[in-house]
Every structure is written in C-alpha cells, then in structure tokens.
Amino acid sequence: MLRILLKDLRRRSRDSMLLVFGVVLPLGMAFVFGVTLSGSGSQQLGRYGVAGPSAAEFTQRTGLPDLKPVADAAQARRLAETNELDAVFVVSPAGIEVVGSVDAPLAVQMAREVAESYALPGGRNVQVVQDATLGTRQLDTRTYHAAGAAMFFAFFAVMLSVTGLFEERRNGTLARLLSMPVPRASILTAKLLVGVIVGLAGMALLVAATTLLLGVRWGPPAGVAALIVAGVLAATGLMTALASFARTPEQAANWQSTAAAVLGLLGGSFFPVAPELSVFTPHHWFLEGLAELRGGASILPALAVLLAVAALSFPVAAVRVRRMVAP
Amino acid sequence: MAVLAVEGLRKSYRDLVAVDGLGFAVREGETYGLLGPNGAGKSTAISMIVGILAPDAGSVSAPPKARVGYVPQEVAVYPDLTARENLRFFSGMYGMRRAEAKSRTTEVLRLVGLSDRADEAVAKYSGGMQRRLNIAVGLLNRPSLLVLDEPTAGVDPQSRNAILDSVQRMTGEGLAVLYTTHYMEEAQRLCDRVGIIDHGRLLAEGTPAELGEPDLEAAFLRLTGRELRD
C-alpha cells in the first residue's frame, strides 16, 4: 500500500493542475478578498448607520453615502435587531463596533471590511456583534477569506486525487495491478489516503503562506490542525462518495466540481450567504470552528460535525469504490 | 507438463455469454496462440486466467500471481513517470526488495532496448517504445507463464520484429507463453500450437501446420466466418 501511495504522491507532485487548484488559486483568492476588497471602503452593499463620538470623522473619512445618523449604541442594537438597518458603525476613539443584523450576513461582512480598513491606520480595535450569542467570536477579514478559500479549494485538491482510480481503470494500470500479488484493499486504501494527504499538504502550505505573506492569524496551532484534519477528512469522504456513483472520470469530475463550488458558496467560503443553508456544509463548520477557536470557545461541536460527515461518507465511498476492483 | 490448464471456463454479463466452456493447456517452453475475431472472448478469458475477473464456472490452474507476467492489450504504464520509475514501482508490486528491483529493472530495460531512454517520461516515447516498456513490466518477475494480449497492436514493423524476437528467445528458456493476436503471420511465426475461438468457444486447436489450409488465415476465416465484426 505504501508503494502505491508513494507512487501516487510522486505523480501528483508533478501535476501542475493540483498546484494551481491546491495552492496558487486559494492564495490568490485570499489575497484578492482579504487585502484588496477590505480596502475598498467606497463600496456599499447595505443599509448602514453610524453612531458614537467619532461618527462625523468616520463618515468623512470612509466617504460612505447614505449613512444614517444613529443616537447611540443602544439604538444601534435596536435598529439592527428590527432589521431597519443592516449594520451600524459605533465609532469611538478606542475602536469600532459593528452592530449587525443576523439577517444580513453579506452586508455585515462588508461593514466589517470597511471598519477594518478605517481602523487600520490608527490601529483601533474592531469588534463585530450580530447577536448576543455570537459575542466577539468572529474572524477578521483576512483570516475569514484565507480560511474560506483554503477550504473551498481543498475540495478541488482532494477531487483531483480521488479520480485517480478512474484514471487507472481507463489506462489499464488498474487491471495490471489486479493481476499482481497486491491486495485489492491496499489499492483502495492508498487512493483514499492520497486524497487526504494532498488535502492536508495543500492546507498546511496555505496556512504557512497566508500567515507569512498576508499576516493571517489562524489561531492556536493545535486547534487549527485539528480543524484542518477534520475538514480534509470530510472533504475527501464527500468527494469520493460522490465520485463513486459516476461511470466515467469526466462524469465524476463534473459532479465533484459542481458539488465543490455549490458547497463552497453556500458554506460562505467567500462571503457569508444563506445562513440557514450553510449549516449543511463542511465549509461553514470549518469557519465556525476557527471563529470559536479565536474566541476561546470550544471547537468540539465543529469538529464533531466535520468528523461525522467523514464517518458517514467514507463507508459509502469504500463500498461503492470497492466495486471498481471487484473480481 | 502443463504450466497453464484451463477447463470449462465460463463468464457471462447479464444475457451475453462472453466465454462458454473454454478449455486448453499451455506447456512449459510452449507458445500457445489464442486467436479469434473481435468480441470472441479472448480478453475476458485472459482476465480470468490472470486473476482480474472471477469465472462463473470452470477452473484455471496457473502459477501463483507472483510467477505470472501479464502484458495487457493497452499500454498499461504511467505516462508521467519515467520507464525506470514505472519498472521500479511494478517491481515493488511483485514484492521485490529495493536492490533486486533495481537490478531487475536494469535487466529488463536492456532486454527491451530502452536503457538509453530509461529516465525520460513515458509520455515522450513513441508507440513502439511504449509497447516495449509494456512488455518489460510483464517480464519483471521472471514469470513461468507470460500472458501477452495483442502486444504488437499498432506498432511499426521494426518494433514488432523486436518484440517477436524477444518472445521467441524467452520460450527457448522454458517460459510458457499465452499469446493473442489478430496477425496470423505472427501466430504462424511464434506459436507452437494455436486455439481458434469464437463466441467464447474453442472451435479448433492444433499446430499452425495442422490447422493451416493453405495458411492459418484461411483456416481462421473458414472457422469464424467472413462477416464483419464490431
């Protein structure tokens, strides 16, 4: 099994598509969203208000049009709760609190990016509050986009590996391996492990690169590592289970690409959208876990969901894929 | 003494009977040609003989997998690896240790004339070179039975001649060879005995001289018909 695994890893290391999907694209996306977008304070995608002693200065410097003046933080919370405004900037010399509506995640995300952009020169603190239960357990913009992009592309990275079995069947090497004294289970296990290892390597590389190049703060390493392992296991299990129902490598690749894109978008890999649907995606739980980690809360619920997805999908994948090597 | 003995072999896919009671034997040092038109059941029979497929009925008495060399119809190697990397990998699949795999790789590369290009990616090889590498993989484990499924399909005359020469040389050393081909002149040149199959059944068996009237191709067409096959 180890020899098959090493051979596959050697082949994948020469696969330029894997490098593009696993590292270059997510790094590029994290850069674009995390740096470029967070500086574009002139964009307005929601109904915003401003309060606090430094409200006038904030309005002038950000240049946001149609900022509704709000009396104080208490009124800001009331307006956000009743959904009359998507978010209110409560600005003081000490920092900025973004009080957001839970029903407008995208607008709140944009407000947070504007606030961070404004706060950056003075080094002021930025806090986002959407409801009482969330508190300060939020990721900053750069970390959010880096983690979202990493998880989004992890689904593509593991996909390139699990389609290897289809490829081997098509070019005849699977038949050749089956004619040799190799246990069939070794071939399957190696293929699944390749997906996991490629996914983990890609994520580890991205964590290192975004930390060094973009200043992303992922959080305590042990917790981040646990979430990455659980996230990659969930991604590999889901992608392999899906691919196992396909008849051809092309069909498998089409299904996997569509699923990876839809799950990633719904899961809020780039922006928080459709919160009621995102809970059904591994991406949401990965990002949620990182946010909990940042806030010092337990990541066990997020880990449990990710591992449950893996535990449910791997047996399906194993049973289905075993048919491909059945005598 | 028979190295391979096949008896009453049967395999069907839903309503289609691919192999229907096939039986033959290949002796030590003998080259046995399994001839038949497209869809006759040759590849299905070979898949059962080398252990890829399980038969519905019948039996195959063959050496263990570690002593069987299989050269499939398509070039079954990894195009993005070099010839040496391919051979080292497949050596490992036969359970060879590192030193043995290294020396055996060098030997078979020399045998198929690829030593000079051993460290190039297979994707850069010509069709003939890829076919020779395909055969080299089948020889790695010093097999006592070599199963060649149309090994010369689509190669140039020079490569074909080199392949046939090497098969002839190996049978001289006691290797039993099961060989399928569409080329009757190949069967005539290589095979000690041939079996002609169609619709999964053995229609005739004997030496090329016994079957050939006036040549093997005429016998083949007489037995399997002249209508076109898919």
From TrEMBL, chain A:
InterPro entries per UniProt: Nod_factor_ABC_transporter
Transmembrane segments: 16-37, 144-166, 187-216, 222-246, 258-275, 295-319
Alphabetic keyword roster: Membrane, Transmembrane, Transmembrane helix
GO MF term set: ABC-type transporter activity
Cellular component terms per the entry's GO annotation: plasma membrane
Source organism superkingdom: Bacteria
Signal peptide: none
Name of the protein: ABC-2 type transport system permease protein
TrEMBL record, chain B:
Limits of the ABC transporter domain: 4-224
Matching SUPFAM superfamilies: P-loop containing nucleoside triphosphate hydrolases
Keywords tagged on the record: Antibiotic resistance, ATP-binding, Nucleotide-binding, Transport
Keyword hit for Transport: yes
Localisation: Cell membrane
Entry annotated with the keyword ATP-binding: yes
Entry's Gene Ontology cellular component terms: plasma membrane
The name this protein goes by in its record: ABC-2 type transport system ATP-binding protein
